[in-house]
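Kindly review this record before class:
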Amino acid sequence: MITTALFPNRYIQGDNAIEHCLGQELARLGKKALLLQSPSAHKNLSTTIEKSLDGNIKFVIDIFNRECCDEEIARISALVEANGIDVIVGIGGGKAIDTAKAVAAELNYPCVVVPTLASTDAPCSALSVIYTPNGEFKRYFMLPRNPDLVLVDSKVIAKAPARFLVAGMGDALATWFEAEDCRQSKAPNMTGRPGPISAFQLAKFCFDILLQYGVQAKIACEQKVVTPALEHVIEANTLLSGLGFESGGLSAAHAIHNGFTALEATHEYWHGEKVAFGTLAMLMLIDSEPDMIETVYAFCQSVGLPTTLAQIGLADVTDEDLMKVAELACAEGESIHNSLSEVTPYTVFAAIKAANAYGLRRQ
């Protein structure tokens, strides 16, 4: 059997990593960079970034339009070609990063990712999630290679609201359960081949780190300080989850998340928050052991992840709308079909209802 794993070319993490490392690292990859910055990154980090780049590489700054969609990718690609750019840098949250990765893939340029949040496992992956301009899930864009550099400044992560770190824990929480589902069913990872045993061990390690350090990391982030616990969870959210999902595989949790994006009331909630509830529904779908279900619900409550539909904006959701979510989660080509469990719109609908009822019971 042939197995395949995917990794970024280089991963750097630490306090003041932007100031100390970004300029030197970019100089290895090109002569002129496009800095695609989220609005908040542009506001808060421009001075630090420009200081690091000064004398190392020329650059052009562009502000991300907030949605990773085909229209934004086309706009930025035209800007790159008009300005003689030879390396693309995405600086911001998951959607800004995914857009930069997609542009780099379209043009076959080196890609550098500088996440300002530890809110998703997007930074390390060879995958961009493409949405419509209105924020509804559209498709996965499989990229030809992983980023050339992922640089995570822990001080920047610590200054962001703790909700983003917690959302990243929600995204990372799914990693082991989905990878294990794929291992048992021998489903392929993002390359179309099974993952190696190292991918599944990294996914399990990701879960263990969350349980051990999640609460401490949230407390540190609330105090806007960098501690070892925060560093551990940043690495779990960003690197371990990225390697685990991409090389281990996706399953039901992310498919259920994708279904939720069709309900406008969920758009105010972060990807990882919806994935966390998708994980709880997945545990019901795959008939997980009661002790594990209790462990995961307790973890979610301890760090502030959703355990009920109301906590992702769906307090008054109808069964009709939940069935729509379930039908979308079961669409042809969705990752939920990697599961060995019986997957139909009804079984997914039932799992969502059961997950919500269990969460309400524990309140």
